[in-house]
Amino acid sequence: MWAQTIVYSFQNMWTQFTDFLPELLSALIVLVVGLLIAAALGKLAAKIISLAKLDDLLAKTGLTQKAENAGLPISLSGIFGWLVKWFFIVVILIAVADILQWSQITSFLNAVALYIPNVLIAVIILTVGLIVAQFVYNVVEKGIKVSKAPTSAVKPLAALSKWAIIIFTLMAALIQLGVATSLIEILFTGLVAMLALAGGLAFGLGGKERASRWLDVIEREISKKD
Prior knowledge:
By secondary structure, this protein is an all-alpha fold. The protein folds into 2 domains: 18-179; 184-226. Helix content is 88%, strand content 0%. Helix 5 runs antiparallel to helix 6 (154-177) and helix 6 runs antiparallel to helix 7. The longest helix is centred in the N-terminal third of the chain and has 50 residues, at 2-51. The protein is elongated and about 115 Å long. The relative contact order is 0.06. The model has no long low-confidence stretch (mean pLDDT 75).
């Protein structure tokens, strides 16, 4: 009796294994071929970004040099190539999980695959924002110099224009990633209110004497007309 039970258990296990073996071999073939294709597509995406000279545009913002000085060499082509490669790796893993009928893993990987495009868009937003910020910085700096304004105002105004765009870009990228959207909106509102209050205080305290002189001039002009 016990011998028959053991034999039946082994036969059942062997049957399950032989039924599962074709699925396992198919999953391994799909995984190996898919990883090769994903690596090739990642390299192709990196090559396209490199040929488009987008790395040079990012380098002009100074971010690449600062990252290299910090020991974190980055390039836009490398980031895009890495994201494209991992997007297709996740797609391949979804196919493998479907073959093996691992429904929970498939659901998780589907969520990851749907999130990766948001990361790509966020990278594009950051890249465009940094390039625009540097362009605006150069335009404001040259414009103020041409207008013969005080030299002490050149750098602060140009930096203010640049960092305003960078902060807005960072918030837009975080919203695209879905990182605490409501909190970011509150922080943005608070930042605008803080800048408005700081500007009002600066003008009120720093421009008090000048405003007083303007009022005196206006009062004298009115007195003359009377």
